[in-house]
Design a protein that fits this description.
Helix content: 40-55%
Number of strands: 6
Mean pLDDT: 83
Low-confidence stretches: 1-18, 127-131
Length: 267
């Protein structure tokens, strides 16, 4: 072994002793903390720590009733997925789309006094085109339903009510992985809680903002947040905060299908 240099040995001992000095260690920790605060926003203003879910926000769209495992696998495999709205509210329910009901409705148009009064009012107003007033049409159908002993029907105008009507779960908790998969959980569509017009407006805004940022700064800012961690800033904090667990970068495309805009997401 080479001879040990006394000076080198003494210097190493002094360096090691300095490294374990509590005062210096604390100074280093405080310096790192200050640097972190300058580089990283650890306050509740940081949406990566405190994401606020909002159905009215123009910056994000919530997906409902989807399987997280299938979603992650699909995006990881570069699969193209359509972001779809809730189907529009039906003005004619399925139990009225029968020959029996249509026959009863036709008969009611000839004898129902309220309907005939509406028709007379249209004629008096000079409306030769006989445009059917939707409210009057629906009221007539409701009277026919009552006469036939059918259950009262009301169109679901609330998105959550419409989703429930279609057996789509609108809750924030997505189906667990151990639940049997349904067909809608393995298709190429991502379900949202918005009717067509509202969804188109929100996705158009997101698409335009993302494209402008990409063209102006070369940055991609679109992500699919998968899962959120619920946490509390203090032990006695009354309200939880939510931080996204996994962010998958995505691209969004906009195309026209049958005269309507369709937005797709892909990795």
């Amino acid at each position: 072994m080479p001879p040990t240099n006394p000076r080198t040995s003494q210097s190493g001992q002094r360096a090691r002793s300095v490294g374990f000095d509590p005062a210096i260690a604390e100074m280093v920790r405080q310096g790192i903390k200050v640097a972190q605060e300058k580089l990283i926003d650890l306050s509740q203003r940081n949406t990566m720590l405190n994401f606020r879910h909002s159905e009215t926000s123009a910056r994000h769209v919530r997906l409902i009733d989807e399987r997280l495992d299938f979603l992650v696998k699909s995006l990881s495999a570069n699969r193209t997925l359509d972001v779809i709205p809730l189907p529009p509210v039906e003005q004619v329910p399925a139990d009225e789309d029968t020959d029996e009901f249509r026959a009863a409705l036709k008969k009611a148009r000839d004898i129902d006094p309220e309907w005939l009064a509406v028709e007379d009012a249209r004629r008096a107003a000079g409306d030769r085109r006989r445009n059917r007033d939707r409210a009057a049409e629906r009221a007539l159908r409701d009277r026919v339903r009552a006469q036939r002993g059918m259950k009262e029907w009301r169109a679901a105008i609330d998105p959550k009510a419409r989703a429930a009507e279609l057996r789509i779960d609108p809750s924030y908790d997505l189906p667990p992985a151990d639940r049997p998969m349904e067909k809608r959980h393995t298709d190429s569509a991502l379900q949202t809680l918005f009717f067509p017009d509202r969804l188109e407006a929100k996705l158009s805004s997101i698409h335009s903002s993302a494209r402008a940022l990409q063209e102006d700064a070369g940055l991609s800012a679109l992500y699919c947040a998968v899962g959120f961690l619920e946490w509390y800033e203090q032990e006695d904090s009354p309200d939880p905060s939510f931080a996204p667990i996994l962010l998958l970068p995505i691209n969004m495309q906009k195309r026209i299908v049958s005269g309507e805009y369709v937005f797709t997401a892909t990795s």
